[in-house]
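BUG: 3D viewer hangs when loading the predicted structure for this chain

Environment: internal workstation, default settings.
Expected: structure renders.
Actual: progress bar stalls at 90%.

Input used:
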Amino acid sequence: MNTAQHPATPEPIDAVHAVLADAGVLARRLREILAQLAEVALPLDELIRRTAVARRTVEDLLAAAGPDVEATGATYRLTPEARDRYRQRFALDELRPAPSTGAEQLERMRGFIESGPAPAAALDHVTATPETALRRAEWLRDNYDLRGAQLLCLGDHDLTSLALSLVAPSASVTVVDLDERILAHIDSVAAKQGFAIRTLHADLRFGVPPVLEGCADLVFTDPPYTPEGVGLFATRAAECLAGPNSRLLIAYGYSTRTPALGHKVQQELLQLGMVFEAILPRFHRYFGAQAIGSASDLYVCQPTAHTRKLALRQAPGIYTHGPQSVEALEASAPPEFLAAIGERVGGPVATLRDPGWPRPIRQQQGAPVFDLRNDPGPWLLRMLLACNAERAGFVVDNNHPDITSERAQHALLELVAAKYRLRFHRSSPDSKHAVVVADAVETPSVARYLLNRAHGKVGNIWREGLITYSDESLTKREAKDRIAELAPNADDLDLRLIDLPRHRIAELVRSTTA
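Structure tokens produced before the viewer hung:
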């Protein structure tokens, strides 16, 4: 017989596996059906009632199992020969209720939070209690099939990623955050504890790292509690969701005294084509946020077919306090302000360019000057990486963390030294601001090659630079093997330099000179 023309019929257990694979993180409820069938014979209506799964879905699963399910009268049960195989293949015993969080896990979580960075008011940080972080993790574990799933935390000041690693070590977690301190802290804890957590840097106003687009089965976020903030974070989450079986989980709270605000935020989600699958009241508790009772709800949102198409907007002001707030957006710079900047960069400045680093910034006529007056801290480095002009200027707040001390200036100088020479003009063009002027370094090196191509995959760019500038003749294979020995973090080789946390960029740059 020609097997190519007559493919073998798959075993029932393999057909069931395919059904579960298609369900993704929602497969846990299908596994619960199998667990019921492994224990007792049940009528179809009782099976549906116990598992809360739609009749059509239950029928499809029974059809896939075929002869592995015995039907006696109006009841269904896995055959004696199939029960153990199904228990093992689909880890049905793991579905039994997990023990509640113990004192040891709670104490470890409390230690993670207390040793972490202080809340940044300008980024609307309000710290969740350690009990809340663990409650989130347990809820995810108990409601979704996390085996092989990709979970993304958009912002993680509350360290939900660390809590999930405590209660579900097999989960694959990625954290994206604007705050470099948080990324460094999570990396440090994960390394010490052996947690599998990947961290990436992004300001969601300028997009998400391309590697995350359409990758996440679950996205969790506790965004700024403004309509603009929730709308932006939900939009970026929608870009990252893998498909119709993915879910977005949002922490959001409002005072019962201001229901109109809650309505406006919910409208933002509805305009993205999201369906509220569940709203769990007062699920999260905080140290602070007393205006909303130090609590917020958990929104479980299901995307529709229109969600990805609607995820096309972004808002520059999203926070409730400080220079990043909705009310703090600045007007265009006056002529005398621009003239003073021009004196520093050595040429006329007609306008300030908006920040953003989704793509490389190519050389143009004259020296571009970028408006970083609202930079919360990380923008300056990202713009230095993205910009490839011979000379560029950057207008920042006079208290920008990269220029307020000699130590801070030296750290930035050292990081980009292979690409740019920097000059810091404090209290210029006025007492509130400073101008950083960057002049390109002409001396070729592997580090310069890498820094000039920050939007390329690190491993590929490093290999090309090593072959081009090494003192010895290297093949592609030899260069790749050399990089494998030198790379501080092998996983970073598949990512873009501009998406890495600052501390890992510094480690990579140092490694290129080893």
